């Protein structure tokens, strides 16, 4: 039986997967979309023209990369809207500003004027009543050691060569960010509590949680 029907997940739902680099968002996106018969919206990593340059020189490329990601995510957002939902999205647009742009600005690797231009653009595009928020944000969390092990195992050279302190800083910021996040309902999942890589069926209890969460949220709205 289709798990979407079994757990009564509305076919127009938009679920976004958030969490630090390497935590397992893409893997979760694929597994959930497959189990629910939803479409996927992925970040473009391999074809991103700025990512390698950015990791080689944060100061020089921070602004360009943020603008690139913002444009890409906005196109994805439009696609999701045009299909009428039914999507699992790999990373939320909120993390671009709440984690990455902010971190580079505060660490001095994004120029203050560039940061202001970026946040103005972000607010004008995203923080409007017309911008559809996801029905649910699934936040994946895990220990720094486990996440660094996954980054190393996945093997993107520019990430492997980035100092551990960068991932540590990001890990801390994510924790603070999610504790204050309120743009949509949040379901937190610890990566030690499931293994969708070796046990495909372990996606079902996650879908059960999602269903519970979505229905509870709907009830609260009434
Ligand atoms: N549930 C899991 N158990 C074990 N390894 C995982 C799991 N989810 C992801 N991984 C591994 O961790 C690495 C990063 O996962 P990925 O989904 O690409 O992360 P993200 O999209 O968050 O950057 C990959 O090598 C992937 O195979
Ligand atoms: N907004 C962003 N700023 C800087 N870097 C970013 C941003 N969004 C994603 N990234 C980087 C981080 C990773 O190296 C890749 C892909 O992210 P992942 O979490 O592995 O999906 O892009």
UniProtKB/TrEMBL annotation:
Keyword Oxidoreductase: no
Example of a GO MF term: ATP binding
Active-site residues, as the UniProt record annotates them: 90 (proton acceptor)
Residues noted as binding substrate in the record, renumbered to the chain: 43, 55, 66, 91, 96, 159
InterPro entries xrefs: DCK/DGK (IPR002624), Deoxyribonucleoside_kinase (IPR050566), DNK_dom (IPR031314), P-loop_NTPase (IPR027417)
Keywords in alphabetical order: ATP-binding, Kinase, Nucleotide-binding, Transferase
All residue ranges annotated as the Deoxynucleoside kinase domain in the record: 15-215
This protein's record includes keyword Protein transport: no
This protein's GO CC annotations: cytoplasm
Pfam families (alphabetical): dNK
Gene3D superfamilies assigned: P-loop containing nucleotide triphosphate hydrolases
Binding site for ATP: 19-27, 150-154
Family according to the record: Belongs to the DCK/DGK family.
Name of the protein: Deoxynucleoside kinase
The organism of origin for this protein: Fredinandcohnia quinoae
Record lineage: Bacteria, Bacillati, Bacillota, Bacilli, Bacillales
């Amino acid at each position: 039986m289709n798990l979407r029907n079994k757990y009564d997940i509305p076919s127009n739902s938009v679920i976004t997967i958030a969490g630090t680099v390497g935590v397992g968002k893409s893997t979760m996106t694929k597994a959930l979309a497959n189990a629910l018969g939803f479409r996927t919206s992925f970040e473009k990593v391999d074809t991103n023209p700025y990512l390698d340059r950015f990791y080689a020189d944060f100061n020089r490329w921070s602004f360009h990369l943020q603008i690139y990601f913002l444009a890409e995510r906005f196109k994805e957002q439009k696609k999701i809207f045009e299909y009428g939902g039914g999507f699992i999205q790999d990373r939320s647009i909120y993390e671009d500003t709440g984690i990455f742009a902010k971190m580079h600005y505060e660490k001095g690797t994004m120029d203050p004027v560039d940061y202001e231009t970026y946040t103005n653009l972000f607010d004008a595009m995203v923080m409007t009543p017309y911008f559809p928020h996801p029905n649910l944000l699934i936040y994946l969390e895990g220990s720094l050691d486990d996440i660094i092990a996954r980054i190393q195992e996945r093997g993107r050279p520019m990430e492997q060569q980035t100092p551990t302190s960068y991932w540590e800083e990001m890990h801390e910021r994510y924790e603070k960010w999610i504790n204050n996040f309120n743009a949509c309902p949040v379901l937190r999942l610890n990566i030690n509590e499931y293994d969708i890589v070796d046990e495909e069926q372990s996606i079902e209890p996650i879908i059960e949680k999602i269903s519970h969460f979505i229905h509870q949220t709907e009830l609260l709205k009434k």
